[in-house]
Amino acid sequence: MGNNLNKILVEDLDFYYDDFQALENVDLKAPANQVTALIGPSGCGKSTFLRTLNRMNDLIEGTKVEGKVLIDGENIYQENLDVVNLRKKIGMVFQDPNPFPKSIYDNVAYGPRAHGVKSPEELDRVVEKSLKRAALWDEVHDRLDKSAIGISGGQQQRLCIARALAVNPDVILMDEPTSALDPVATAKIEELVEELKENYTIVIVTHSMQQAARISDYTAFFLTGEIVEAGPTEKIFERPEDQRTEDYITGRFG
Ligand SMILES: Nc1ncnc2c1ncn2[C@@H]1O[C@H](COP(=O)(O)OP(=O)(O)OP(=O)(O)O)[C@@H](O)[C@H]1O
Hints:
Layout: E1 6-17, E2 20-31, E3 35-39, H1 46-52, E4 63-71, E5 74-75, H2 83-89, E6 90-93, H3 104-114, H4 120-133, H5 137-140, H6 153-165, E7 171-175, H7 183-196, E8 201-205, H8 209-215, E9 218-223, E10 226-232, H9 233-238, H10 243-249
Helix pairs in contact: 3-4, 3-6, 4-6, 6-7
The structure holds adenosine-5'-triphosphate.
The site of adenosine-5'-triphosphate (ATP) has 12 residues, from strand 2 and helix 1.
């Protein structure tokens, strides 16, 4: 079990919103402790695909999935799977920072409390550890009881990452986590993603090809619901095999 172990293995995935097929025949491997970037033009299915990885699409009525998503070798679409447990293992961070209108502390403690952690010492420990891992502790440790709404957008996004880390996931899904942030806050999140991969497997949707090139190890290029090409980031950007990939990364469309 080395670094190349496929944490996530997607096989022949199709996805429908009612009659509309948003994903077709998608195959993807996301290796453990690596960053996998999903790129492609608007509307090509990146977010839909990301949400199939922790069954967030289940919450949207009229959707249907066919195919397999194996996480640690187990198909998450098998019957009787415990979805609450799945989402604990597969955390998610969204485009717009969305902290709860609660204190910084309570945002991070929310998940552990929901999963039954009651001891104040244990909660303190988890909150501190999660905020440290999200590179936010130094900036907020003296105001944990203040509202999360009062911190900057970049800090709010790191708080959302801390909130995701607090339930001890092993995969983190990020849907354009920096698109609402300024360049300085974006750089901090990118730095953080690089640190986090030591302990987590990360799948990130990004509109920015520069960002994908900077922070990811693997890249998958989506076009109209299909993966055109996937592989090591360097190869996708420097020696793409498909003309459509080359056209996209050189800015000819999208
Ligand atoms: N809840 C929904 N109901 C119906 N169709 C949807 C829904 N969400 C997305 N779609 C459609 O599915 C397709 C893929 O959308 P998706 O948001 O996954 O693409 P995307 O690549 O993430 O786009 P963007 O980069 O603009 O976020 C689009 O045609 C979109 O209109």
